Amino acid sequence: MKSRGIVGLLAAAVPALAWPGVACAGSFLEPAGPIAAGQIAHFGVISTLMLIVIVPMFVALPIVLLRYRRGGRGAYRPDWEFNWVLEILIWGVPVVLAFALGTALWKHTLQHDPYRPLGPEPLVVEVVALDWKFLFLYPEQGVATLDLLALPENRPVTLKLTSGTVMQSFIIPSLAGQIYAMAGMQTQLNVLADKTGDLVGRNTQYNGLGFATQSFKTSVMSQEAFEAWVEATKAQTAALDAAGYQALLKPSVVSEPVLYGNFTPGLFDQVIASFSPGMAQGHAHAGMSASTPPHHDHDHMQEAGR
């Protein structure tokens, strides 16, 4: 068997040995897409490489303790100064290991760049991080949700993220790693879900009293089911306009996802423009001030109303 195949088998086995029988629901250890699958493979490679240091250390330690204890068989050499074999092991192995770790990280970083498209014609979802909830806007479908991200199976998805408040860290561990959402700026995360089911996403950047509860449901469904979901959401009477968005800016916790049958076009750009006046050119304002960022009160927690 080729050495690459051996490393691959070890890389796949390490996570299973580390967590026998444990699924760790909602983590990258249960990948639901190629990005998370790549992350767990990278984790296995890194763990395998680190075993090159850890295993010999744990094997050699008891041997040295037994051999050089009082009355042991080890020779007493008070004038010993240098040994080429030991020098090569002490310096050579760490250098090779650091090079291998750096190469693996470099390749993984390029392969799983969050801005790299995962396929043609992606579904675009605009994400606005709020206190303590996430607003999802579907510009092509004309619907919006609060704390519910619906995705079609096996279709590339481009998430465009910003924040209507403080900086937050957006992550769906079973799909991809974290990326920051910042006021007045836009970041991007490309994901693809290759199996249906419900996943958990959340904010991992502390942002006040409701931080511990700021999670959202990610529902992955077939393309047909997604289209049916869009039609059913369009039938909702609730609509999200500038006044509704201003209400969502108040810090609150959402107990159940909220569906909006429609929303003000360009709302995502208007949220960015409210923090960066220079970004406002070419966008309707929908009643939000481009010169004065929204004021937020983090001292009170309430439940978001429908």
What does this structure look like?
This protein is an alpha+beta fold. The chain has 2 domains: 5-111, no CATH class; 123-300, Cupredoxins -  blue copper proteins (Immunoglobulin-like, Sandwich). It contains 6 helices and 13 strands. It has helices spanning 3-18, 34-67, 84-111, 223-234, 242-248, 267-275, and strands at 123-130, 133-138, 143-146, 148-152, 157-163, 168-172, 176-181, 187-191, 197-203, 215-221, 239-240, 258-260, 262-263. The strands form 3 sheets. Strands 8-5-1-2-3-12 form a 6-stranded mixed beta sheet. Strand 1 (123-130) and strand 2 form a beta hairpin. The longest helix has 34 residues, at 34-67. It is elongated, with a radius of gyration of 26 Å.
Descriptive key words:
306 residues; alpha+beta; Immunoglobulin-like; 2 domains; five-stranded mixed beta sheet; 6 helices; 35% helix; disordered N terminus
| CATH A-level architecture of the largest domain | Sandwich
Which stretches of 5+ consecutive residues score pLDDT under 50? 1-25, 280-293
Separation, N- and C-terminal Cα atoms:
60 Å
CA radius of gyration is 26 Å
CATH superfamily of the largest domain: Cupredoxins -  blue copper proteins
Quantity of strands, as a count = 13
Biggest β-sheet, characterized?
A: 6 strands, mixed
Inertia-based shape: elongated
SS class: alpha+beta
The residue fraction in helices comes out at 25-40%
Q: Could you name the CATH topology of the largest domain?
A: Immunoglobulin-like
Specify the number of helices: 6
Spatial strand sequence of the major β-sheet: 8-5-1-2-3-12
Number of domains as seen in the coordinates:
2
Provide the β-strand percentage band: 15-25%
Mean pLDDT across every amino acid position: 84
